[in-house]
Design goal:
The chain is of the alpha/beta class and about 250 residues long. The protein has 9 helices and 10 strands.
């Protein structure tokens, strides 16, 4: 049995909506083996619970998710499984963001059915700056996000804000108060019938899931190869040491 005081995922339920809160402040809610496992288990329980109409995914602290935990990264196949689980869950998953999102955290965001952020949120695909590529997270991102924008942000690692994230399709909406933005969304989900929600979600995710069938294996292998490369070793060491990697000119 887990200890609620040390769980990395906290649960709350109100009027049909279960809130899952990422709570791993020591590593800015990075995707560690343990966090991925606990989130996978929590989503499984939500999918099996008839009282859950929708899932709200949010976070503690000033970071929604910093990407893969570089000290305890999950295997690429585990990340594929988590992203696919969000897409296949028979309940809508809504992301509520009030902080920073980096690298693999953007894959979580793209897998959610609806995503909203407040003005404090920032976004960046930082993989290229540590010697890897946004491989596995491309499975939900490429079908749902503006391709020209992704070309820029994938290749440069630039930071951008919530208005731009909404413009390119990474977010559904943004606003001065994320809870005000989400209030009509959650009200609408509570008014919808469970079976209708499940079937409508299935309709909406069909094309995205096609990319999983086609590309998951290839992108998992690419991710594993890059993380095992000399450039990634230098990039991650530079990140930990708070210096530029050797290739910066």
């Amino acid at each position: 049995m887990t200890d609620p005081k040390t769980d990395l995922i906290h649960h709350a339920h109100h009027r049909g909506v279960t809130t899952l809160t990422l709570d791993s402040p020591a590593n800015r809610n990075a995707l560690s083996v343990r966090l991925v496992r606990e989130l996978t288990e929590a989503l499984t329980r939500c999918g099996q619970d008839d009282d859950v109409r929708a899932v709200l995914l949010t976070h503690t602290g000033n970071t929604f998710c910093a990407g893969a935990d570089l000290r305890q990264p999950p295997h690429p196949d585990e990340l594929v499984e988590l992203l696919g689980q969000i897409l296949k869950l028979p309940k809508p998953v809504v992301a509520r963001v009030t902080g920073h999102v980096r690298a693999g955290g953007l894959g979580l965001l793209a897998a959610c059915d609806i995503a909203a952020a407040g003005p404090e949120a920032t976004f960046a695909f930082t993989e290229v700056r540590i010697g890897v590529a946004p491989a596995v997270i491309s499975l939900p991102l490429l079908p749902r996000t503006d391709p020209r924008a992704l070309s820029r942000y994938y290749l440069t690692g630039e930071k951008f804000g919530p208005a731009e994230a909404t413009r390119i399709g990474l977010l559904t909406a943004d606003g001065a108060d994320v809870d005000d933005v989400l209030a009509p969304v959650l009200d609408g989900l509570r008014r919808a019938s469970p079976k209708a929600l499940a079937e409508t979600k299935r309709l909406l995710t069909a094309k995205v899931l096609e990319s999983f069938d086609l590309d998951a294996g290839r992108l998992s292998r690419l991710s594993a190869r890059l993380f095992d490369s000399e450039e990634a070793d230098e990039g991650m060491r530079a990140f930990r040491e708070r210096r530029d990697p050797q290739w910066v000119v």
